[in-house]
Structure formats: C-alpha cells, structure tokens
Amino acid sequence: MREYVPGTVIELQTRPYYGPDDQLQLGKRIFHRMFWTFDPCVRAFPHCKPFVQVDGTWLYGKYAQILLNAVAQDGNRNVLPIAFAIVDKENMESWEFFLTNLRRYVISNDNICIISDRGKGLIAAIRRSGVPWRSIYCIRHIAANFIRDYKNTDWKRQFVKIAYELEPHIFRQMMTRLESDMEGQTNTSFRQWLGTIEPWQWAQSFDEGFRYGQMTTNLVEGVNAVLLKTRHLPISTVFSATFYRLATLMPRMGQQQVNQIEAGHIFVEDIRDAMVANRRMARSMNVEIYSRRLETFRVTETIGRRPGLPPRSYRVDLRNRQCDCRRFQTLHYPCAHVVAACAKVNLNVEQFVEDVYTLNRTLRVWENEFPVLPDLSTWEVPSITFELVPDRGLRRNPRGRPQSTRIRNEMDIREKSDGTRCGLCKLAGHNRSKCPQRNYHVGQSSRSSRN
User: Fold this and answer.
1) Strands 79-87, 285-289: pairing kind
2) What are phi and psi of 53, to 5 degrees?
3) Which of 59, 217, 50 is nearest to 134 (CA)?
4) pLDDT one-digit tens code per residue, 196-245
5) Which of 69-83, 268-282, 420-434 has the lowest mean pLDDT?
6) pTM greater than 0.90
7) CA angle 132, 138, 144 (to 5 degrees)
8) What does the angle CA 294 – CA 298 – CA 304 come to, to the nearest 5 degrees?
9) What value does the CA radius of gyration of the chain take, rounded to a whole number of Å?
10) How far is CA 443 from CA 178, 253, 433, 446, 450, in A?
11) What is the pLDDT at residue 448?
12) What three-state secondary structure class fits 291?
C-alpha cells in the first residue's frame, strides 16, 4: 500500500495463527490492529488549533471491530481528520496503540489539549502512554453520566451551564446553588460524585484557554457520521474512503481560502463576524485608562451583557491579553471590552487576534494536496511472507435479522426547546400565519412598498 499511496503511514499489528490442532502456522498471521495517517494531514496539523478530539465508533461489517479517529480544527471551525485506526476492542491496549502512533507520526508538540469521553480504557491509556498532553472531557458525556446517576433533568441543566460558565466567581455561585438544591435529596454530594475529575477537565472557567471554547467531542462524532455508509464495508474500503474524501476536501477548502485572500480579507469569516458584533457592543461602553503605558483599563457596560443582570465593569489587561469576562483568554481573540479599550486609545485591535485565525494560516492547513493514485488494475502487488487472515473470534452471528449495536442513552435525547417562535413578533407559541399582530405587520409592509 505504501508504494502506491506516497506519504501514507501504516502501522499493522498481527498475532500468531494456530490451526485446528493448536499448531502454530508460520505462513499465516491474524489481523489485530491497524493505524494510518496521510502526509498532507500531518503537515496541516501544526497550523490548526492546538487541540485534538478522539473517539471510537463501531464498524458493522462481518467482524466486530472499532474505528478510532482523531480530528483537528482550523481557525474557521472547519474539521480536519488527521489519523485513523481499526482495533478489535476499545480497551487500554487499543487506545495506547492509537495514541502512541498519533504521537509518533502526527503530533510532535507537547502543548496540546486532547478532548475525549471518560472511557476507562482511554483514560488508562493516556496515563500509561506518557503522552504529555492536557486531557479534558466532553461535557455531553459527563452530563449523560450525571443524569444516569441522579435522574433529575433540572440539575443536569444547571450542571451543564456551570461547565460552560467563563467567570470563576459566577461559577462558584452556581456551584453553591446546585449543591444547595441537591442537599438532603441524594446520598452522594455533587463534589463527591465528581471524584477525581479536576475542575479544568470539565469547567471552562478553569481551562486557561486550552480548549478554544470546545466543550464536546462533536467534531469527531461528525466525522463518524460522514463515514457511516462505509462502516459496513471491508477494511480496505474504509481506508480508501478516508483517502478519497480527504483528497477531494483539501483542494476545495484551499480554494476557499485563496478566494478570501484575493478579496482582501486577513482573518477568517468566523472572526470577522465576531469582531463586527464586538465593535457594535463596544460602542455602548465607557472606558477609563489605568496605565500611562496604555496597558490596563476599566471598561464599564452601559447595557447589561447578561439578561436579567445589571451592567458591570471589567478589568482589561492588554499586556497579558486578559479580560475579567475571560472571553479574550478563552477564545484567543478580542472581546467587546478589549475592542472598547483599544478604540479609546486608537490602538489597532487586530494585533490581539491570534495568528491561527488568519487566512494565511488556514491556507497552510488546506494547501497540502494528495497524490493521484494509479488505477487499481495497474498495481503490482509484491509477494508477501505470510497470509493475513481475519480473527474469527470477532465474527458476527450471520443468522437471523441484523440487530442494531447502537446503545442509545440520554445523549441521544434532544433537550426540550421553547417551541416555535413567530417570525414576525418573535414570541413563542404560534407562527407567522397565526400571529395576532399579522395584520399590523402586513399593513406596514404594504405601505412601505407603495412609498
């Protein structure tokens, strides 16, 4: 395979094969695990945000195997799969095999955040492999465990809001409120239930900006959904699907970055939109200068940023790139308070946007191209020293109607929303055609069109 797919890294693990008489057969080996990645993905990762999400999903073919994958994200929130593996079980040995190769071939930087669920095998593999990455957990998986143990959806909503909270003092207030609600109604307190989980592993206010606002493993689960239609096919087809999808994705995304640069833009669209909104909010803020070097400011809101709460003041420290609202250090681009402070003293606020959000950086992610493979009929397969056979112990029962292996839990249940909102008056409970103010709006639009 390496001869026909240049730059491809494939690590294959096999096991000895014993015949029916329990005699070792040297001419055969049992397929055990396989890891692969592509050179364009390896060259792209250093220009992505410094975090990676990992997860596993079942394959539905003749044999019960699991596809592990790791994904990264560019500055415009585009997803890039960077490594894959097929293993027999989602245990510590399989995850250690995947993480060790991920570290060896793809991620050389130590200052990386890895986002995952709290699978025992994965956690044990991270500890045992000695990978010096910051391990944090997906809040959806923790919330699913919470509702399983406490069976209270209101407490679960409070818990998720606490996890997403950015300001530490509000985090502590919300924690106290939740503990007060749970007091006397459970055998295990909330802090005892959290056990050995450190606050920075689940709460955004203690994260120090490692996760770039990513609280879930939704990115890698989205890749699993893309590969859904290939997960019942042979391993070679799964490999080919990852190659061809990435080979066509790279030039398409690269052309988008070039078009944006030629249009005169510097930053990605997501950041441009966020900065427009922040500039709009900054106009209603008052700024006081607290440093003659123009480094620290006190920014006071005239309109409350949070619904139901009065306006507040925030300390902005440009030298250390900090704001008391913590959006600046969490998302790595200026919040509205920083924008207001820079406008006060005529500083260019764009200098405080991290380089990962520039189009030149995202172009380096997507400029790497895959080679065009020769037709399969032209491949000259070299002779092999052994025959690779499947593990018959993993074979599914072929009899009867296929059964779903998907175990559904609380994560599959959608949260209740406020219902449909009217497109005219923006109130819940009805739509445009049944709006009580429909005649008024229609009359207004008619008069406007006549004028």
Assistant:
1) unpaired
2) -110, 135
3) 50
4) 899 999 999 999 899 999 999 999 999 998 898 888 888 888 999 999 99
5) 420-434
6) no
7) 140
8) 140
9) 27
10) 49, 45, 14, 5, 11
11) 46
12) coil
